[in-house]
Structures are given as structure tokens and as C-alpha cells.
Write a structure and sequence with these properties.
By secondary structure, the chain is α/β, with parallel strands linked by helices. The chain has ten helices and 18 strands.
Amino acid sequence: MKCPRIDVDLRKIRHNTRTIVERLKVGGIRVSAVTKAVCGHPAIAQAMLDGGAQGLAEARLSNVRRLRQVGMTCPITLIRTPMLSQVDDVVQFCEASYNTEVTVIEALAVAALQQNKVHGIILMVEMGDQREGIMPQDIGHMAQQVVDMPGVVLKGIGANFACLSGIAPTAAKMQALSILAIDVEKQSGPSLDTVSGGNSVNLPWAFGARITGRINDLRVGEAILLGVDPITGNQIGGMFRDAFTLVAEVIETDTICARQPMNCADPTLATIRLVPATSETTRIILAIGYQDTDAAGLSMPSGNTLIGATSDHLVVGAKDTALCVGSEMQFNMNYGALMRAMAAPDILTILHDDRPDQNTHHHQGPSKHLALV
């Protein structure tokens, strides 16, 4: 099979989604499945929907277009503040968007009126992450402006955690967000459909919370795709960590570059002498590098050690003497490595088990099964 590639087990993605959906349902929290790490891959998005996600969440409009182009009609929310230059397309392709700027909301309203639509607005509140958001003391005034604006509707509020500053969500933070939601409703009038407490890092709180307050939505991507707690990296009980496998091909073995001692003042420098490997560890070079993924985010197979990487090469110390030129090596990835690998043009995405289980929910209309895109 061709390399490099990512083998995707859609059955495991459906399972991970279903596990989270069922656990959060107890607390009245629904799941918006985030597809940005997989570049809006339609089949992977469909697996999340089949697992029970109530809709999709995306950060890039190009990914939303990809989903719509194959006929996906489920609700999609843009979770990054829209660019002014893209407001027409945001209204066309997304039911709602997260916002922090009045200027942008006004432009969305104009675009919505022109398209004879009403666009949903979710206001992002700054709760300590310092990435983006409206200050809590200003959220009521901003909400009232949205309510008074034709073409848009105030759908809810949301917050973000552990993205920029690493500030983790706490029960106190979630309670504060719930209180803000109640205050916004009292000040601006309409009941909020969505109070989004954050992302995958909120799961430990949500799984353990006896009272979730007004929080009724989480934007979950990493936990579904990789089955881990983003903060600790620990596996979430009952979930798969290997829904995605990066496969690279060996292009060289058994060669070590040894540098002779050199005088940095010598303009000719020292020559590089090639010598055969003399240790028990075989040096393996694979045809993948920083241009394809985050090498530091790869989990080495048992018995192997990451030596280093360049833009085009991954160098691994291997105990397996059976590896030869043309052999394949498999890696698990963290979230950063997965994002870069899915976006890399030279890495193929191969789907496995792309038929939904029985008793799943189809949001796709007549086309239930999606082929590789």
C-alpha cells in the first residue's frame, strides 16, 4: 500500500463519539463534534454524527465548504470569529458562528438579510484563556446589541479553556458561566439555546459534575479522535487511542553519520565520514518529516527511539533488525501531529470500516456512506 498514509478506523471514531455522547447526556450536555483537525473530512465527520453528535463545529471556512460540497446538511457552526472578508460565505454555509466583534456581527447581519436568512450568533466570553472573548462585564451589552439587530439571532454564549494560556476549566468557572447565561437572559430577553462550556478539556469536569448548571454544549474534537484527556494525555476509559495510524516507509537503514572533531574557526570545517552502525540499534530513515507532521508528537513503536527529523526525513533508532528498505513503520499521533498530517498534501487518508453501525443516526440525507475524499 502507498506511503505515507493515515489509516483511519471509522468504527473507533463512532465508538468514541458514542461513548462521550452517552456520558454527557446524563448531565444534559450535547456534543458539537469539532472537525478542524481532520480538515473537515466528510467521512470522519459523518462517523461523528453517526456516533450521536448533534452537529459539527469548524474553524476554517474551506473545511465547511468541503463538507457542504458532498451534500452534508447537518448544522455546522463556525467556532473561530469570522473574517469580515468571508461573512457572505459564513452565512451561506454555516447556521451559526462564534463572535466577539460588533463590527463582524453587523456585517453578518447585512449578509443574512441579503440572503433572506437569519444567522445564529454565539458570543464568546473571556474566562481566563486569553485567546479570544468578550469581557464578562461587557457581555450583557453586547447581547442586547445582537438582539436588536435584524438578520441575526442571539443563540447563546460560550467560553474556551486550555488553548492559549493553559488555564483548565473548574467547577467555579462553569458556575460563573452559568450565572452569566442567566444574567444575559434577564438583560436581553430571549432564552439561550446554547451555553457552550468549552472543549475536550472540559470532559473531566463534565463526567464528574453532579450539577452542570446551564452548560448544555461542549465542542469536542481531540477526545473523540484520539480518545485522550488533552491536559494529561491519559486515555479516557472505554475509548480507543488508535483510531488514526500514521504509516511511513523506510528508505535507508544501517548508516550512521559521524562527525570528526572540527575547529569552528576553520573555514573549510570538517568533513562528514560515513561509518557503518556498530551498536545494537539500527538507524532507520523514513520518508516523512516536519513538512508532513510534528515529529515530536509521534509515539514511537515499542523498542524504537526518535533520533531526530528534518523537513523530509524521520530518523529512528530501531531494535528490529528485520526492518529493511521498503518496510513500513506505524505511529500513533498526538493532536498537533494529527492536524499537520491530515493537512499534508503528500499523505494519503485511507478509510477502514466506513459503514455505520446499526441504530445510528444519519444526518446525511440519501447518501449514508461516504467514500474517501
